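An example makes the point: we let one protein speak, the chain in one-letter code, the fold tokenised, and here it is:
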Amino acid sequence: MTAPALERVASALRDEGGLLAAALLPGGADVPADDPALGARAAAGPRAAADPDAYAAVVEAAYEGHLLHLGRSRILDPADADLAILAGDRLYALGLAWLADLGDVDAVRELADVIGLRALAATAGNADLAAAAWDAGATAIGFGGSPALEAAKRAARAGNSGAPDALRDAARQLGGEMARTRCVSTASGQPSP
């Protein structure tokens, strides 16, 4: 699901033209084997049920923005560091705009939180916090939030060293609860959410 989502992002950049369109990799998306497939995670949730491909593209656009801020990319040549930062900002904005177009204000808030936590992690030089924020954020975009997730985000903002684990635990709970609900609903003959 990552490559098609990234092609949707690349297509949007191509349609806009300009520097970012010119910087697109000629062979299409270069998805590494260890890619976290965050878009697929969001697309699996009940919030995304009406348009899972759109939710996958939203998350992959924003995650691509994160990668560009780190000097890496799956769809663009990040050789120019200044352009990579600007492209990252553009892709964050694109993901937020696409979510707003879907009318999912709660998911917009979750994505904005991920972007904020990612910036906090970058300032602290904490790659583990950034990865955990993306894990939890992608899950929350698709599955919805929880009190445990909100507590984990507060812990991250406060600089709590256990915040990455709390974010991952909250993500597992969100995804696990939905999986259990689907299994129970399917076993009882009721339609899955």
The two ends are 21 Å apart (CA to CA). Residues 178-193 have pLDDT under 50 and may be disordered. Residues 18 and 24 are 11 Å apart (CA to CA).
